[in-house]
């Protein structure tokens, strides 16, 4: 399975006279700040309140770190739930990266919590006896064991050959289990349950469970009432396949070029098997979305075998990858199946009569594998579009660009001032890194660049 997920930045337009305006605080920054506040609220409540008598600093700090760990664990369950309040400002890739980094914070908080409990009183080592320890300590040990299983199954998923759908179900189940056992431990300790910290922690834990219920139970029911029908299965160059859908009984969900959606078969709305793909169709026809998929394995390999008439559920749109309408020029740098969000943008621009200049730098292994090659030629007639094909393995007699999309190539093909230009980059990690490094060497501000990394799941 595959998708394109946001990794950086957003474009901005130059002010009169060529000076770049000071960037405003983005919705993403505001959301991250709010997330940080939510993560420390229970801890702040602990610090403001009066500590129980007879407790030393080490034990008080250990309790505070335990509260932090439970708070982060609860928020970790909210991040992947695709809630609009999270998904719209953050974008998928930022949410995933934040989820992974906070796992490190969670482990560090738990380790410090345990260490301080032992430092405060070395006899507390007896709490690690799974047979003789009191039930509250057993709950803590069980929570740590479940969390360790969650992390191990994530790090070793491919080595364990866990199917993505099965891993997702296991991941959510272990996350809820670790949180529940941790809360049970806090109930047994009974130090802050009646304080503002305890109430805040209870609210966050409840929100985490509700987020999982929304993702796994409530949303599939809503999506089942707005299904899509597979109209055509179209083979494309480069081993890709386009699935053309039609909304059944509704007008479709409006989307922006560059966004993606999760697809699953309608006969199993609550199944864990669902697959994220970028829209490749024009945003002018949301009732007829299309997705172009490269066969890598699993569902992507079976996609060409789907039959017209198959009913599909579409969870989306998601993602923040898009060109801003007031940019003076749009540059697209893509590699391989990274053409999918770019073709959606170009099709949408053609349908909207967009007269801005577009440049597409398109890396392919070979000429015959350049997906949408013929349509790009037609789009050059409908748009102010210049397509630069770059072949890694060019055929004899090839007169165009070859090799890799690096600073030298971009300097040849993008000789103009890019300060008022949206630069959108989509591709596998090596291509993405080389292109971003090339843009940096050309002096392009990160604020003008929006990058999408191809990931397999």
Give an account of the 3D structure.
- With 457 residues, the chain is α/β, with parallel strands linked by helices.
- 46% of the residues lie in helices and 19% in strands.
- It has 13 helices and 13 strands.
- The protein has helices spanning 27-48, 57-78, 84-90, 92-120, 135-155, 157-160, 164-189, 196-224, 299-302, 339-352, 373-382, 407-413, 429-441, and strands spanning 2-8, 228-236, 240-247, 260-265, 275-278, 290-294, 311-318, 329-335, 357-364, 384-391, 401-402, 421-427, 449-456.
- The strands form two sheets. It has a seven-stranded mixed beta sheet, with helices on both faces. Strands 5-4-7-2-3-6 form a six-stranded antiparallel beta sheet.
- Helix 11 (373-382) links the parallel strand 9 (357-364) and strand 10.
- Helix 1 packs antiparallel against helix 2, helix 2 runs parallel beside helix 8 (196-224) and helix 5 (135-155) packs antiparallel against helix 7 (164-189).
- The chain starts with a strand and ends with a strand.
Topology:
Elements: E1 2-8, H1 27-48, H2 57-78, H3 84-90, H4 92-120, H5 135-155, H6 157-160, H7 164-189, H8 196-224, E2 228-236, E3 240-247, E4 260-265, E5 275-278, E6 290-294, H9 299-302, E7 311-318, E8 329-335, H10 339-352, E9 357-364, H11 373-382, E10 384-391, E11 401-402, H12 407-413, E12 421-427, H13 429-441, E13 449-456
Parallel strand pairs: 8-9, 8-12, 9-10, 10-11, 12-13
Antiparallel strand pairs: 1-13, 2-3, 2-7, 3-6, 4-5, 4-7
The helix count comes to 13
> Roughly how many Å is the radius of gyration?
25 Å
Q: How far apart are the first and last residues' alpha carbons, in Å?
A: 5 Å
Oligomer: single chain
Q: What is the makeup of the main sheet?
A: 7 strands, mixed
Instruction: Tell me the overall shape.
Output: elongated
Helix content: 40-55%
């Amino acid at each position: 399975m595959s998708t394109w997920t946001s990794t950086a930045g957003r474009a901005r337009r130059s002010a009169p006279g060529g000076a770049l305006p000071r960037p405003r605080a983005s919705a993403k920054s505001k959301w991250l700040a709010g997330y940080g506040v939510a993560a420390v609220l229970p801890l702040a409540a602990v610090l403001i309140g009066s500590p129980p008598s007879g407790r030393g600093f080490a034990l008080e700090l250990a309790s505070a770190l335990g509260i932090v760990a439970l708070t982060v664990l609860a928020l970790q369950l909210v991040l992947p739930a695709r809630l609009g309040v999270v998904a719209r400002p953050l974008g998928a890739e930022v949410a995933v990266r934040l989820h992974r980094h906070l796992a490190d914070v969670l482990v560090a908080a738990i380790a410090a919590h345990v260490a301080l409990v032992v430092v405060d009183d070395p006899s507390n080592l007896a709490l690690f006896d799974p047979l003789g320890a009191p039930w509250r300590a057993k709950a803590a040990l069980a929570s740590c064991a479940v969390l360790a299983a969650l992390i191990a199954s994530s790090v070793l998923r491919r080595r364990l050959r866990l199917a993505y759908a099965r891993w997702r179900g296991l991941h959510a189940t272990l996350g809820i289990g670790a949180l529940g056992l941790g809360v049970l431990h806090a109930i047994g300790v009974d130090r802050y349950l009646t304080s503002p910290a305890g109430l805040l922690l209870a609210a966050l834990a409840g929100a985490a469970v509700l987020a999982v219920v929304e993702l796994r139970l409530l949303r599939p029911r809503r999506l089942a009432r707005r299904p899509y029908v597979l109209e055509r299965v179209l083979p494309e160059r480069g081993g890709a396949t386009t699935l053309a859908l039609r909304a059944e009984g509704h007008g479709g969900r409006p989307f922006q070029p560059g966004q993606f959606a999760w697809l699953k078969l309608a006969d199993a709305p609550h199944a864990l098997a669902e697959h994220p793909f970028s829209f490749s169709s024009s945003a002018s026809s949301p009732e007829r979305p299309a997705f172009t998929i490269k066969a890598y394995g699993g569902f992507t390999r079976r996609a060409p075998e789907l039959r017209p008439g198959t009913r599909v559920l579409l969870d989306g749109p998601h993602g923040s990858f898009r060109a801003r309408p007031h940019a003076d020029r749009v540059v697209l740098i893509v590699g391989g199946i990274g053409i999918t969000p770019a073709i959606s943008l170009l099709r949408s621009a053609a349908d909207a009569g967009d007269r801005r200049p577009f440049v597409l730098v398109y890396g392919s292994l070979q000429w015959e594998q350049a997906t949408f090659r013929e349509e790009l030629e037609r789009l050059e007639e409908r748009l102010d579009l210049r397509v630069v094909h770059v072949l890694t393995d060019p055929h004899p007699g090839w007169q165009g660009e070859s090799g890799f999309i690096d600073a030298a190539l971009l300097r040849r093909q993008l000789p103009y001032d890019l300060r008022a230009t949206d630069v959108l980059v989509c591709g596998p990690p090596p291509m993405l890194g080389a292109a971003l490094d090339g843009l940096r060497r050309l002096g392009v501000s990160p604020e003008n660049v929006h990058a999408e990394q191809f990931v397999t799941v």
